[in-house]
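Reagents: none. Just compute today. Formate dehydrogenase subunit gamma.
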Amino acid sequence: MRQHQPTHQPTADDIAGLIARHAGTEGPLLPILHDIQDAFDHVPQMALPLIAEALNLTVAEVHGVMSFYHDFRKAPAGRLVVKICRAEACQSMGANALSEAVLGKLGLDWGGTTRDGGVTVEPVYCLGLCACAPAAMVGEKLIGRASADRLEAAMEGAA
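Predicted 3D structure written out:
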């Protein structure tokens, strides 16, 4: 399970405070995005123009950086995050079929969250278990030689 649950919706003042922590530092965009996501479990759309203004960037530049890195979310994740590796080693060992099975059973697309807010499924591009492909992560638990049945059991165990 995730360690952090945001206590309230972010306000402009909340975002400004997180941005201010990086005033005068070199290359602050990624640290700011990480701080905002750590605080609110996602980077809300309303934060992008505030970040852009503070760093003298365009909103498009901030959005481009945010969308380039797969770890940044536009909406809060579910109570349980399931990550399935999409790297070549895992794909060669059945990750595509695994992904289709898990996403199909939950009725989700990549990055989607179940209606009850219980589970979010995200792609990742290496979990470091290439020799045990396909690899996945359920909450904080790494799973090598993952199958749909093993992931389902891990999800039930984490609930």
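The CA atoms of residues 55 and 61 lie 10 Å apart.
Action item: order primers for follow-up constructs.
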